[in-house]
Structure formats: C-alpha cells, structure tokens
Design brief:
The chain is globular, with a radius of gyration of 15 Å. A five-stranded mixed sheet has the order 1-2-3-4-5. The longest helix is centred in the middle third of the chain and has 21 residues. Strand 4 and strand 5 form a beta hairpin. It is about 40% helix and about 30% strand. It contains four helices and five strands. It is α+β, with helices and mostly antiparallel strands.
Length: about 120
C-alpha cells in the first residue's frame, strides 16, 4: 500500500494560502499591513506582500533606511522558529512593500539561506 504524502513545496503553498485566508489583512503597525502571503514552487520562495501608509509611505525615507529594514527582516527570520522546516530546506523569503498612495513598489528584497542562517 502506497500512501500519499504532501511534498514540502505543496505544504508551503498550502500553508501560505491558509495563512492569508485566516490572518490577512494583518495590521503590523499603524503604517504597515500584511496583505497576503504566497509561495512559488518553481523558486521555493515565500512572498510577503505589504502596504505601507502614512509617514512611512515615502520613497526617499525608505531608500535611506533600506539597509536597516533588510537587517531587521534577516534578524526576524533568523529568530522565527515557526517555519524552521522551510528554512532548513533553504527556501527563500521575498518581501514586497507597496505604497498605499500610488501602488508603486517602495521596497523589495529577497532573503536566501545564506542571509538568514
């Protein structure tokens, strides 16, 4: 008898979809909302889509702090234990932040295994 078993990529895709359905939009703070999460099997990448508003919705400001933003995301991902199985598999994490004012991309970065381990 052969049992069906969900692949790690299928599990990641399902969990991202379920997280979005149950938790999004999710207010991070008064200027940031997590709109959705997704998973791309072809690249083994989790996507996190945010909307930035208020004073933070400023391209020049984001440009000045993008290094600190990336360092914060790396720290958060490194310390996050809920997705350890995906990190051990070397999955990537892409963060895309959009302006609430005009819908343009304010920040876009991808963290790979070598960044967070």
């Amino acid at each position: 008898m052969v049992g069906c078993q969900e692949s790690l990529q299928d599990r990641a895709e399902r969990e991202a979809r379920e997280y979005t359905k149950k938790n999004c939009p999710r207010v991070i703070n008064q200027m940031m909302v997590l709109d959705s999460t997704a998973f791309d099997k072809a690249t083994s990448t989790f996507f996190h889509y945010y909307t930035i508003s208020g004073a933070a919705d400023d391209r020049e400001h984001i440009e000045k702090i993008k290094k600190e933003m990336r360092e914060g995301l790396i720290k958060e991902l490194h310390e996050n234990t809920t997705n350890i199985i995906f990190k051990k598999a070397g999955f990537s994490y892409r963060y895309v932040m959009f302006s609430k004012n005009d819908g343009s991309v304010l920040y876009d970065t991808t963290l790979k295994k070598e960044d967070y381990q």
